[in-house]
Amino acid sequence: MGSLSALNSAEINELLAEAARGDQQSLGTLLERDRERLRRMVATRLDRRLQGRIDPSDVIQEAQLEAAERLADYVSNPTMPLFLWLRLITGQRLMILHRRHLGTKMRTAQRDISLHQAALPQASSAALAAQLLGQLTSPSMAAIRAEMKSRLHEALEVMDPLDREVLVLRHFEQLTSAETALEIGISVEAAKKRHIRALKKLKTILSSSGPNPEKDVT
User: Fold this and answer.
1) Can you say whether the dihedral through the CA atoms of 180, 183, 163, 217 is positive or negative?
2) Which CATH number fits domain 125-217: 3.20.20.60, 1.10.940.10, 3.30.530.20, 1.10.10.10?
3) Which pLDDT score is estimated for 8?
4) Which of 52, 57, 97, 132 is least surrounded by Cβ atoms within 10 Å, i.e. has the fewest?
């Protein structure tokens, strides 16, 4: 069997069948395969007020324990690809933690994007702006970086919520166009167009701010 990232669908199905029969090694292989992608999702969507209090690895561990308990049900009726199923469970665990720690301080439910009938925490515009400008760390660039972060924050705040969600899924969580389309219930072509549109808007803002950090949003 090849590397974890290179497993084909037949190999994944074989591992799933073995894991559903109780093979812990096969289960571990499947869960490890998507750990880094899930960690990116949690890190991107974890409320900044909880950073330092909640470790993304702990969220993933809780989600994987739940996934292990529910795996047989998933194998008997796989309504979505394995990674998206694991992502859904992980997102639900993260939402529970947000509610537990933040309560009424959370964003209203109307501002969350509903995915597969379950709301996942949104990535904040401030967090997205900080990640987009993460490589501009030179002290001489500090003033320009602060200005650009502010402009990006404002642009992301007024961006169509679905466009911003596509940007998060494609750029930060590194989902494929097909996975993104499944997650938000649009066609693959529509997902591609929305991603390109969001990137163009952000590149326009960055290019008008002096330096040229466009490589951060490609």
Assistant:
1) negative
2) 1.10.10.10
3) 81
4) 52
